[in-house]
């Protein structure tokens, strides 16, 4: 985290915004990249005044929405064979277990799985391609995609920005303490979201093999 933070500080603000949007966009297409780490690190930079929080959040939201839409188009064209190929290439992130978990999420929540999955690291990688492969109607997908991207991007950015600025004000004689506190807040929020995802997974009954294929008909 701190290595990423230090590296971002060496870049001009416009490069930081482009990097945030690019990494999150490619991640949302279905390629495992550290989008969450880049967003958290950039939000912490905003707390120190290096970049502007509104532009960090806007770049993150744009990358999430556009990337998911591209992932949707690729998934719709490539279908389940594409997901299988991605699983073989990235077995740790997109293997059969992760795909089954994402399908259960769609079976339970329909198109709004796209919204909820935005807050879970592994699931948001699959949300766009899986929605396309399952032929979820694009208008409904876009609504859930935009809502999830905006809430996730602006919520994460301004949460960390506010905590970092408050810590810097209270502890201005120890400048690094504000950064440490903001990092702890970011890690705590990530831990809570992952714990919520595990609880949802544990509460879901095992779905029949044919159920995920019918998920799109429920939307």
Automatic annotation (TrEMBL):
Keywords: Cell membrane, Membrane, Transmembrane, Transmembrane helix. Residues 41-159 form the VTT domain. The chain crosses the membrane at residues 109-134, 141-162, 174-193. Pfam families: VTT_dom (PF09335). The keyword Acyltransferase does not apply. GO terms for cellular component: plasma membrane. InterPro entries: DedA_domain (IPR051311), VTT_dom (IPR032816). PANTHER family: ALKALINE PHOSPHATASE LIKE PROTEIN, UNDECAPRENYL PHOSPHATE TRANSPORTER A. Belongs to the DedA family. This is Membrane protein DedA with SNARE-associated domain.
């Amino acid at each position: 985290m701190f290595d990423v933070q230090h590296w971002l500080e060496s870049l001009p603000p416009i490069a930081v915004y482009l990097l945030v949007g690019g990494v999150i966009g490619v991640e949302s297409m279905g390629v495992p990249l550290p989008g969450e780490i880049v967003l958290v690190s950039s939000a912490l930079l905003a707390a120190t005044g290096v970049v502007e929080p509104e532009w960090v959040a806007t770049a993150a939201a744009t990358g999430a929405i556009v990337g998911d839409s591209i992932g949707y188009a690729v998934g719709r064209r490539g279908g389940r064979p594409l997901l299988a190929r991605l699983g073989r290439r990235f077995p740790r992130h997109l293997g059969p277990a992760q795909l089954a978990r994402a399908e259960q999420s769609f079976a339970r929540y329909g198109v709004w799985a796209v919204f909820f999955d935005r807050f879970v690291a592994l699931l948001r990688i699959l949300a766009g391609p899986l929605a396309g492969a399952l032929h979820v109607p694009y208008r409904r997908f876009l609504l859930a995609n935009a809502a999830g991207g905006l809430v996730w991007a602006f919520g994460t950015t301004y949460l960390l920005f506010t905590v970092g600025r408050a810590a810097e004000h209270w502890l201005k004689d120890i400048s690094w303490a504000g950064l440490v506190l903001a990092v702890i807040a970011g890690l705590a929020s990530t831990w809570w979201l992952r714990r919520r995802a595990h609880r949802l997974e544990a509460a879901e009954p095992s779905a029949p093999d044919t159920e995920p294929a019918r998920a799109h008909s429920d939307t």
